[in-house]
Amino acid sequence: MDTKSMLLKAITDQGMLPLFFHADEQKSIDITQTVYDAGVRVIEYTNRGKEALANFKKLKEVAKKTMPELKLGIGTIKTPAEAQDFIDAGADFIVCPIVVPEVAELINAAGILWIPGCMTPTEIALAQKHNAGLIKIFPANILGQEFISSIKELFRGQLFMPTGGVDLSEANISSWFKAGVCAVGMGSKLISKDVMENGNYDKLSKDTKEVLALIKSIKN
Length: 220
Known about the structure:
Elements: H1 3-14, E1 16-20, H2 25-37, E2 42-46, H3 52-66, E3 71-75, H4 80-88, E4 93-96, H5 101-109, E5 113-118, H6 121-129, E6 134-137, H7 140-143, H8 145-151, E7 159-162, H9 170-179, E8 184-186, H10 193-198, H11 201-219
Parallel strand pairs: 1-2, 1-8, 2-3, 4-5, 5-6, 6-7
């Protein structure tokens, strides 16, 4: 199994992809370590501040010592220059909010999994043309579960993951999987402002374990 296929399997098996950004290096490490210790093995750090690249490099360094099984990707990549910076920093996968063919070509040439964000069938078709293994449905809070249900037959075999509009409740998460997604992106509903600003890592650990268990039960 090649590297991209292994990552796709890891994300699908995990059933969710936690994602966050914090400007503070130590808080970024603490949050990542907390979800890792709770059972997460694939995480998306997001490129949403000037500190993102330096923090990402530090996370990769720390992961070698305390999170050896971690696959760390970077999100919110919109340009080839951004993509190249994080390829050089060792990103295991790259998530984009949009479909930019030049970015896709660069990422694919590096042998890294590319996960673009799509909002329309035309964008999905374009993403497939440029070898997107997994497509992020974004913004999922606008599109909703019915969008997935409506278009999945047009793109049989395509893996979809919603980001935005996913909360911690069983009803919400199960409705996404019932619609046909392979995993859900979990941002501020899981790694909340309270968790990030007040260091409420006990809550983060508890919520992470509960969501992983919930998703496992839904999928089984």
